[in-house]
Every structure is written in structure tokens, then in C-alpha cells.
Amino acid sequence: MAEVQPKVKSVDPVWDRLRQEAREAIAHEPLLGGLVHSTVLHHDSLSAALTFRISMKLASPEMPEQMLREIADEAHREDPTLANDARADLTAVMDRDPACHRYLQALLYFKGFQAIQAYRVAHWLWREERFDLAYFVQMRISEVFGVDIHPGARIGKGIMIDHAHSIVIGGTAVVGDNVSILQSVTLGGTGKEEGDRHPKIGDGVLIGAGAKVLGNIKVGHCSRIAAGSVVLNEVPPMKTVAGVPARIVGEAGCDQPAVSMDQVIGSKD
Question: How far are the Cα atoms of 15, 37, 102, 190 from residue 34, in angstroms, in the given order?
């Protein structure tokens, strides 16, 4: 008779920490018990918590919470990378945002994190050629969070969108891994041209508040775009650009500007 092997419990440190933070939050503020229980403690996985939170935030009379929950559950069930990317995004927010002290904050309150997770569901729908439903989710993300990401855009993991007011990312844009984007950033086109017309952002890039990157141009890895800049030309890797139109003003200042979040252009550049 074959020996029965004991089941090995999967380890998910991010989810375990989220649940611990949830219990601590309820102990500290019992009035939030319903919210925290329904969003975290009621579920058995990060995917389930994410799909619940997304569906609750995006629900409307046009599309009730239960229907959105079924759509998001299907996306996470069919594509496990959605939850893995969310873990990387949560870690990015914790590492880079000095206002974030717990994973729970991002899941419950940070619309940048919530918007990118909802986008990931819309992008899955887009890849499945369910275009109208993808557009609907995009519309609700824009209405609820003030973040307009075309579902066709390709965005990596470890993304931190800080504050998230008025973010616009076009349909042929590509954003690499470990990118930090501040409020009022546009990754857009330059007019009515069709086809591949939006920026390609490399890994580890920091894009400052209000920056506009326009056209089918490459922004090299670990580069830094200063706040308020208008980028119309290719940016080499590990450089800082600033101005209208943007020009190279120095080196990136460090190996990982998206992680350091240092936006001061000084003598070290």
C-alpha cells in the first residue's frame, strides 16, 4: 500500500500579514469591524479579498457587485499571475510610500493600488477579446478612482501609483516592472495617429507628478522624469530628464529611482 503523503500547506506571507493586520485593526477600531471582516477575514486567499474589494468599489446600478465579483473571480481563477502581481504591487506601495505602514491600508484605502488591480481584471478581459466588458470596467475605474487606463495597455508588476489623481495611460502603452507613477501623469499619444502610438516605459522608472510622456517613444530602464516635464523624445537608460520639452539634465541619481522615490535634482546628478 502506497504511503499517504501529508499535504503541505502553501505559504503566503503577504496574505498572512494582511490577516494579522486586519485583526489588529479591528481590535483598535471596532467600528471598522464590518468592513475589515468582509474585505479580509471572511476570505481564504488574497485573490478572493481582491476580487471582493474591486467588485464592491466598482459596483453600480448598471452592473451589480455580484456580477462584477463573478467576472473578477473568473479572471483570477484563469490567470494566477493577477494575484502574484498584486503581491508585488502591495510590496511596492509598502516599500516606497512613506504614508503606507500596513498592507491593509493599500487594500482598503489607496485608490492607486485598487485601480491597478481593477485594471488587471480589465486587461484579462481584453486579452480574452471580451472588449465591451473590458471597456465597461475601464469606465468604472475612471469614474470611481479618477484613473483612466486603457485595458489594452500592458503593465508589469511592482507598480506604485501614488495619490492616483488624473492618471491616463493609453492603449498601446507598455509599462515595465517596478515603476513608480505619481499623480496627473499621462502616457499618451501626440494626436489622431493610429496604431502603436503610446510610450514604452522601461523597468524601474520614476515618473514625477504631472509629467506627460507622449508618442511611441522609449523611456529607458531606471530613468527619472522630473515633475511637470513633457517628454517627446526617447530617454536613455539611467538618466534624468526635465523641462518642457524635456531634456537630459543628468544621471538618474541612483540605481533604482523608482524605489528610492528621490525627485530632487541636485549636484549628485
Answer: 19, 5, 19, 47
| Beta-bridge mates of residue 148 | 168
Among 133, 118, 123, 136, residue whose Cα is nearest residue 56: 118
User: What single letter denotes the amino acid at residue 159?
Assistant: I
Q: Phi/psi at 27 (nearest 5 deg)?
A: -65, -35
Compute the mean pLDDT over every residue in the chain, rounded to the nearest whole number.
94
Residue 145 has pLDDT above 90, yes or no: yes
Domain boundaries, the chain: 13-146, 153-268
CB-CB neighbours of 102 under 10 Å? 16
Closest CA to 202 of 220, 226, 188, 187: 220
For residues 235 and 209, is the Cβ–Cβ distance under 8 A?
no
Strand order in the sheet with 160-161: 160-161, 180-181, 206-207, 224-225, 239-242, 247-251
| CATH architecture observed for domain 13-146 | Orthogonal Bundle (1.10)
Q: Which residues of 195-220 are buried (b: 16+ CB within 10 A; e: fewer)?
A: eebbbbbbbbbbbbbbbbbbbbbbbb
Instruction: Show Cβ contacts of residue 45 under 8 Å, excluding neighbours closer than 6 positions.
Output: 12, 15, 83
Please give the class, per CATH, of domain 153-268: mainly beta
Report pTM.
Answer: 0.92
Q: Residue 1 above 90 pLDDT?
A: no
